[in-house]
Structures
1.
Amino acid sequence: MTDTNIEQIIKDQIASHSVLLYMKGTPQFPQCGFSARAVEILTQIGRPFAFVNILENPEIRATLPKIANWPTFPQLWVAGELIGGSDIIAQMFQDGELQPLIEANSEAI
């Protein structure tokens, strides 16, 4: 696939999911501690979220940091905007900022 195709796939994923986590592994089996931490926080909020396992999508893994201007994973996107990685997710959760943001952009389970 070309970079343009991959960029379009990423843009479509972000547009199609109001809460999207690009991560290493899956929510059931995270493949790094940072992804596990992000999943744990999102799970505590109790709202559904989509995910993309970048280990199974090397083109996305290579292209997304260029689009997002964010070099690391996981990356949390809410309502089409990059929120950040696990440190920012954790800080926002501790500060009480993340839960209302997620709740405003997702359906209750």
2.
Amino acid sequence: MCEIDGQHLTAAAIVGHDGIVWSQSDDFPQLKTEQITAIMNDFSEPGSLAPTGLFLGNTKYMVIQGEPGAVIRGKKGSGGITVKKTNLALIIGIYDEPMAPGQCNMIVERLGDYLLDQGF
């Protein structure tokens, strides 16, 4: 699953803006509708997740730098999350050490850019 420099994402998914999962890894957390809604709101109103954190399944991530309207990044302990928005979907990658945050960002954002180029 999504390898870079010999490292792999812990979990990943492609989810439609409506919260319907298009594809996910076996160990991807069970999403709640309100979590996708909160993520979509942050893309519309950058910074809205910062006070509460980004929740995915039962895990809370502290929101860190991203690209307003395009990418949300979060951190929890030695791991984290990257969410890239395309025209129709959210690309979500979760990582833990030894993968570095930048490696996760690169995987998720490149896939998102590819889907954007394809009209998705």
3.
Amino acid sequence: MGSSSLPSFIQMSSTCSNPQRKFQHGMILSRRDIEFPWSFSSLPSSKVLHKSVPLAASIAILLWSSPAHAGFMSGFSGIESVPGPQLPQIDFLNRLNEENQKKYAENDARFKSSPLLQKLLEQSKLNKEKNRQAIENKYCIRGAEWGVGDCSAEGMSPEEKDKFIAMLKEKAGEK
């Protein structure tokens, strides 16, 4: 490596222990070579500073942040409140739509007045009442056996209690 071809301030010092980092006349130095008379970690207030900066930032964010606006959910109108353009009306499509609406209304009325639908609605109503009564009977029998609720047989003698429960089961259609 010829030193005569390089300028004098770039030529490497022969006394340097790390030739990649130090050049002659101190033009480029490593971080290890620079020493400051003080550092931030040696200051007594540095620990307080390290702990108080995040706290101050959090408080600033909480106090000075504005709420986000969420469109119609927050009371602010958005694009959904702007009416769209008026579409052209086509007479043929309007007549077709009216005819279809009349057909649908007639079919609905005919279906609602059909004897089959009336029969099914009546059966549904009867089944609902029957199921409700069966559930009430089941819980009344259970309450009488356990001695709780409206059908309790708590104050009866054992013979009266057995007769009462047998009567409830017969009424409910059990046994």
4.
Amino acid sequence: MDVDTASDNTSIDDKIDDFCENPTRDALTEGLMSLLKPTVDQLDERIRATRICQIELKQRIESLSEDLQMINEALQCPLEIDSYIKKLINAKRKITIVGNILQSTQDVLNKMHQGVEKNTAKRKALLDHSSLYSNTSNITDKEEQVEVEKEADPAKDPQV
């Protein structure tokens, strides 16, 4: 007998039935999802607003830096504004770093949001799938029940 055909092999399909029939787990998952989703959405929106402010600040610093550079060139005087220009350039660099951190954080949040949506869709599909099985439990003839299951999910066909 092949290792692949041994009866002790398990798959996720074997465990789906156990997963769908646990109302406590379903209620807990739904509760956690309803608690986390607004927080993730709110955090995502605040990061967007912060990134917009960071971009505006960066543009203003660049404009100010250019203006100071033009003043410095126009005056041709020994005023020591180079140190201030360096400070502005350092501030601009730090803002760029913070912007990159915010972007990566927003990317992580977007992935989490997509995962939440995917998980929700998967759970709905599993619940719909489990309701299909509960509707077929009234069939007394075993052959009719097997046919209904084959129609519902051809991947579970033992002959395939």
